[in-house]
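thought: user wants a sequence for this fold. calling inverse folding tool.
action: design(structure=
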């Protein structure tokens, strides 16, 4: 056998070995390969993150589903599992209901004529709180909302639902009341109470804020809103209280339609917490939570994680999903791409980008009559290019501006059950090589040397 032929045979053997070891073991996948004959998308489990999922589609393309915040938690086995905020009977002493398939565990006392008590537990620390009013005369609950009747004088109810990092509350004023101040008791062992620069109340532990209490908005039955609320901490004889004080003129206006809802929220500052939705009260007051738009009054934003989006791709679709909770028949919005990180940027910068300097993706989007459901829109080809360009910064953000004078659209944001999300559909332009493939390179080298030596001995 000639030297040239021996070398050719040697290279063939090595090439076959590489293909068998790398492709046969699944360490390398081709973007155009199909999902094993499946007719439905298959999740690529190794790509799951706290805020996203990636799917291999039947046609060989892939889809990144990225949410504006945490939707998965690590269970006792350190596996990422979907957060489940459904209420279940609690075996914990002194509690009736619980939500524990989450990094923050939430417990409820839900017994009629027993004072309301809600507890949040995270990494060995716990806080408890409730309305400083009356024991409820009745308690009901559905899948994820507990309702306590008549917790304050004047037929005022309280609704509680767990979120991924705490509890969302609604105080429900069923008719006109004589008070504009609503007091909550707090039990936070080893913590001190303080006011934060953005108008929230913080519970501090070892110099760090462990939890925050805020009240952002009031809304009446006709859809009229006001953010004229403030929260004030008080410590009386060692007991912590927090007051929610509403503008009395707004509450008692003849234009009010009942019931009115006021929305206090308690959130644990978990390490993976991110406030990736919010709104700016024009011209520049910034708030986390809602993702809303109302012309000349406020704009909203949502931010999405791109950590697992491959670099070498062609984007074929970019669908934005928002959960519409309240909207009138004329409400429309424009959507723009944001250049500044809305989690960090000041409110005036976000406002400018949402209304003028951000890249315009969608104009006059009209969600009506959708209500209490997701509504979707394709952000278009410019956004396809932008999201690839934004891969290096790790996030993509959309701003929303109301465009119908005097009309409104309220979209849920910081709530695990109905966060905004995007679907990024793309084609891989090159094979994907898993990092663990590098571990096989020494084995391949040894194999190649052995084959070469064997051919040499047969000369």
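)
observation: tool returned 459 residues.
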């Amino acid at each position: 056998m000639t030297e040239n032929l021996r070398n050719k045979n040697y290279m063939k053997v090595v090439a076959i070995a590489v293909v068998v070891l790398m492709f046969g073991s699944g360490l390398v996948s081709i973007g155009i390969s199909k999902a094993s004959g499946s007719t439905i998308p298959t999740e690529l489990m190794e790509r799951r993150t706290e805020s996203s999922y990636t799917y291999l589609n039947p046609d060989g393309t892939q889809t990144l589903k990225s949410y504006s915040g945490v939707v998965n938690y690590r269970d006792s086995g350190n596996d990422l599992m979907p957060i489940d905020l459904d209420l279940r009977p609690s075996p914990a002493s002194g509690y009736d209901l619980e939500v524990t398939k989450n990094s923050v565990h939430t417990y409820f006392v839900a017994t009629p004529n027993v004072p309301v008590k809600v507890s949040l537990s995270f990494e060995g620390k716990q806080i408890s709180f409730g309305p400083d009013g009356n024991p409820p005369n009745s308690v009901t609950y559905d899948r994820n909302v507990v309702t306590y009747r008549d917790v304050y004088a004047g037929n005022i109810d309280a609704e509680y639902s767990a979120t991924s990092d705490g509890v969302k509350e609604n105080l429900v004023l069923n008719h006109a009341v004589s008070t504009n101040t609503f007091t909550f008791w707090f039990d936070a062992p080893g913590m001190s109470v303080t006011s934060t620069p953005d108008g929230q109340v913080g519970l501090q532990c070892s110099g760090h804020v462990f939890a925050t209490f805020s009240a952002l908005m009031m809304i009446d039955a006709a859809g009229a809103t006001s953010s004229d609320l403030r929260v004030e901490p008080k410590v009386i004889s060692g007991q912590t209280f927090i007051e929610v004080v509403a503008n009395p003129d707004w509450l008692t206006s003849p234009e009010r339609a009942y019931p009115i809802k006021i929305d206090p929220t308690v959130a644990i500052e978990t390490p993976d917490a991110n406030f990736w939705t919010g709104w700016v009260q024009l011209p520049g007051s910034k708030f986390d939570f809602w993702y809303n738009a109302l012309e000349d009054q406020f704009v909203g934003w949502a931010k999405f994680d791109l950590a697992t989006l491959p670099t070498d791709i062609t984007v074929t679709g970019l669908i934005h999903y928002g959960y519409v909770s309240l909207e009138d028949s004329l409400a429309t919005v424009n959507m723009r791409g944001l250049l500044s990180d809305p989690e960090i940027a000041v409110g005036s910068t976000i406002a400018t980008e949402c209304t003028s300097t951000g890249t315009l993706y969608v104009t006059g989007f009209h969600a009506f009559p959708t209500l209490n459901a997701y509504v979707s829109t394709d952000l278009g080809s410019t956004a396809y290019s932008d999201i690839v360009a934004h891969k290096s910064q790790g996030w993509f953000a959309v701003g929303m501006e109301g465009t119908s004078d005097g009309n409104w659209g309220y979209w849920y944001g910081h709530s695990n059950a109905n966060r905004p999300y995007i679907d990024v559909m793309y084609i891989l332009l090159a094979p994907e090589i898993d990092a663990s493939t590098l571990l096989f390179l020494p084995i391949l080298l040894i194999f190649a040397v052995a084959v070469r030596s064997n051919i040499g001995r047969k000369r």
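thought: summarizing for user.
answer: Here is the designed sequence. The longest helix spans residues 3-24.
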